[in-house]
Amino acid sequence: MPPIRSVRNRKPPPDGFDDIEDTLLDFGNKMKDAENASNEGKSRKQSLWPIFRVTHERSRYIYDLYYEKEAISRKLYDYLLANGYADKNLIAKWKKQGYERLCCLTCIQTKETNFNSTCICRVPRENMKDEGAVECVNCGCHGCSSGD
Q: What is the pTM for the complete model shown?
């Protein structure tokens, strides 16, 4: 049997966590609502779209707090990444040029596409021949190319 974790063994969160805890709880509630939403009439991938959106919003919130606004410390940022409050692989991509607006990691994985290329939402809108709405099959994104 695995050992039972005690509340006393956990390290307390770093300073500044109290300031963003309410927002993180709101994201947690949104995630629960997305997980418990009805999936009637939707494909398997479409039922995951709300979960991808909440994960993206929560990760972007933490990314903006640390890199854009510089409102949280490095220690708190590392704590949030280590405890799964943000997707560290997605944030790592956001730091690279051309991936600043990336919606999810499945859009850049070439293994899951028909022609071993990235998702249609990664194509800049200027390069699209038709003016129809583009919607990603994987996450429901309407376009996450950087536009550079």
A: 0.85
- Is the Cβ–Cβ distance between 56 and 90 less than 8 Å? yes
Whole-number Cα distances in Å, 24 to 19, 27, 30, 115, 117: 10, 5, 10, 38, 34
Domain match, 136 and 66 both: no
Positive or negative torsion for Cα 120, 28, 48, 86: positive
| Of 78, 95, 112, the domain-final residue | 95
Measured in whole angstroms, the distance separating CA 85 from the mean position of its chain's CA atoms is: 10
What's the CA gap between 145 and 132, in Å, rounded? 16
Q: What is the pLDDT of residues 9-22, one digit of tens each?
A: 478 899 999 999 99
Q: Are residues 67 and 27 in the same domain?
A: yes
* Residue 26 near residue 20 (C-beta atoms within 8 A): no
